[in-house]
Design brief:
There is one protein chain. Strands 3, 4, 9, 10, 11, 12 and 13 form a seven-stranded mixed sheet that branches. The protein is 25% helix and 24% strand. It is built from seven helices and 15 strands. It has 356 residues and is of the alpha+beta class. It has a single domain, classed as 4-Layer Sandwich (L-amino peptidase D-ALA esterase/amidase), CATH 3.60.70.
Length: 356
């Protein structure tokens, strides 16, 4: 739309799938209308799957880490990723109360691929993130079922590399800065390396929104349009951020990258409020760690911390998260959910007239 953020070049598609091997799939649930009938609808939710590679992740793990900016959330699997530095399942995103069922399906999915789990080898650590989409969705209904999780995983496996954004998958019912949020993605290139980000954006007050450094949220408060006033009964928001790169980083370095990714929130006006769950999950596709070790020692080539590229990778993480949030807003459409609640699309043309 003619708006450029940051200074680094983007990947060919400007999304997380620009990182070689990474694929994304969604299952979107959007049924019913009118008053809330607990357990029946309306349904505005879904699940998103991020695959670091197309192989067996439990057998061929990838280096990973996570950073918790504010821990108000029900994510699963983060402590082991932080402790061991490895990702052994796809990353799944969904709504808060469906996260537990999604994790159960992810265990079944992994056990089916690896029947030795819990029998002749250890158990599995499913990694699931979540945001509260209860303003638009019948969240108590926990409508994300096993079939939907399997569908998202299958969509990721069969993806052509296109990342659908906006009101899809885990972003179907989310709100962001008082507007309709959703799934957003972006990428940045640093020499031979790519850093990609995918976010499930569900946070922020309208007055705080910054775009390219311009306080457009304040402008929208002063000159309200057809989107009406900001809803005052939206639950405290959250954001899940997933970073991927093909740069040869170890777990500790990925943790450093995750911390920089969180800085991207400040560039759009985020401040990690008390009720906001703000989590960053990061992984590298540069090498794989075999579950069954052929020897006691392992050798991997990783980037030096003082390599000139490292600072640019940090900047890439900031810029990719910043634009991923904006892309979630720019691609979302107006959605009416339960009880007449409406998530209005960001008034893009009005905003661009103030910036460009």
């Amino acid at each position: 739309m003619g708006l450029t953020t940051g200074i680094l070049p983007t990947g060919s598609h400007n999304d997380i799938a620009d990182v070689p091997g990474v694929r994304v799939g969604h299952a979107t649930l959007c049924t019913g209308a009118g008053p809330l009938v607990r357990g029946a609808g309306p349904v505005r939710t879904g699940v998103t799957a991020i695959l670091p590679h197309g192989g067996n992740l439990f057998a061929e793990k990838v280096p990973a880490n996570a950073f918790v900016l504010n821990g108000f959330g029900k994510s699963m699997g983060l402590p082991q990723v932080q402790e061991l530095g490895l990702l052994e399942t796809p990353v799944l995103l969904t709504n808060t109360l469906s996260a537990f069922g999604v994790a159960d399906t992810l265990v079944s999915y992994t056990v089916e691929q690896n029947p030795e789990i819990g029998v002749t080898t250890g158990t599995v650590n499913p990694l699931v993130g979540e945001c509260n989409d209860g303003y638009l969705n019948d969240i108590q209904g926990r409508h994300v079922r096993e079939a939907h999780v399997q569908a998202a995983l299958a969509a990721a496996s069969g993806s052509d590399g296109t990342v659908l954004q906006g009101c899809v998958g885990a972003g179907t019912g989310t709100m962001c800065f008082g507007f309709k949020g959703g799934i957003g993605s972006a990428s940045r290139v640093v020499g031979d390396y790519v850093v990609g980000a995918l976010v499930q954006a569900n946070f922020g007050k309208r007055s705080d929104l910054l775009i390219a450094g311009v306080p457009v949220g304040q402008h929208l408060l002063q000159y309200p349009g057809e989107e009406g006033p900001e809803p005052d009964d939206v639950p405290p928001g959250s954001i899940m951020m997933v970073l991927a790169t093909n740069a040869p980083l170890d777990s500790r370095q990925i943790g450093r990258l995750c911390k920089r990714g969180a800085l991207g929130l400040a560039r759009v006006g985020g401040s990690a409020g008390n009720g906001s769950g703000d989590f960053v999950i990061g992984f590298s596709t540069a090498y794989r760690v075999q579950h069954v070790a052929p020897a006691e020692l392992a050798s991997f080539t990783v980037m030096r911390d003082d390599a000139p590229a490292m600072d640019r990778l940090f900047l890439a993480a900031v810029e990719a998260v910043e634009e991923a949030v904006l892309n979630a807003l720019f691609t979302a459409r107006t959605v009416e959910g339960r009880d007449g609640h409406v998530g209005f699309a960001l008034p893009v043309s009005r905003i661009l007239s103030r910036i460009i």
